Amino acid sequence: MYLSTMNVSECVFEVDEGVKIAHGVTREALGEESARKPFVVVTHGLGTPKPTERSWKTDEWVGQVIAGCQDLSVRCPFAAMDARGQGASSWAGDCAWKLLGGDMLRLAEHHGRSPFVAAGQSQGAAASLEAAMASPDSVSALILLRLPTFWQTREGSRVALQKAAALLESGTQDQLVLLSAAGTDLSFGPPSVVADALGSKPALILCTENDAAHPTQSSRLVHELLPKSRLVVSQNEDEARTAWPQLIRDFLAAL
User: Fold this and answer.
1) Are 44 and 62 in contact (CB under 8 A)?
2) Does the model's pTM come out above 0.85?
3) Whose CA, among 28, 50, 176, 206, lies 20 to 30 Å from 165?
């Protein structure tokens, strides 16, 4: 997919001591016209086996969200961030989803754009849920692509990440990020808590069939908890690549 970054400024923002979040933000994000449109904060999935090489600029599914934002009929301003410890962002030894969600909240506040639309794929989708649960008033809507395993289904992914980490040189940042990711899960529960906090939020939930790391079970569960959500299950990634930018564009246009 062609991703235009001509109107995107690359910035760094220190969210915590020792944690600087690299991100791209549309230059018109603070303009008067853009202030009337939804502001989207989006982040990427975990890159294995080299998470330090994963960035918002190299994640094709983040590209789907940005393509929806950049559509001429929508033109939503956005900030796309590298998760802590990944891409060009630094970290302080932990990349739990709860911390990533907090980074999304601080990034939106830093740019003076709250409430915002929390968006992401895989770990980024989990981080978006964490942001919304931590501060429901700060998140107006959700775009969740390829939700990962969580709660009762998390163990298989945990083992897979631990095995991937064991193959890397001991003590490297890539290994430490994978081990941190293996130990994370959604920090809240039970499901009724999610429904009570986020039941009024519009949400677009996108996933594909036959993806063990991002099972449809995860997306269907969140869809059931959010009455104002729309769930679209694509048959495969090729179908998703074709359909999702339009779905994202239409979702943003309706906000």
Assistant:
1) yes
2) yes
3) 206
